[in-house]
Amino acid sequence: MEVRMxxxxxxxxxxxxTANLVLIFVNMLWIFGVIWVQFGLGAVVILGALxxxxxxxxxxxxxxxx
Length: 66
Description:
By secondary structure, the protein is mainly alpha-helical. It has a domain at 41-66. 73% of the residues lie in helices and 0% in strands. The longest helix has 25 residues, at 41-65. It is elongated, with a radius of gyration of 21 Å. Keywords: Membrane, Transmembrane, Transmembrane helix. The chain crosses the membrane at residues 21-51. It comes from Salipiger mucosus DSM 16094.
């Protein structure tokens, strides 16, 4: 005996983009604070520049694919 489900309309998933961006900001804030205390402001500046470069490369690659 085969059981078939009736097609139902699905509710759209909630958009958690803003909440995720706030969470990323909070986490990066305390991580940069710990790095600043341990290694100094120069390390934070270098790490920030590196992250900026990697995000820019990712954006460029995603635009090339789409």
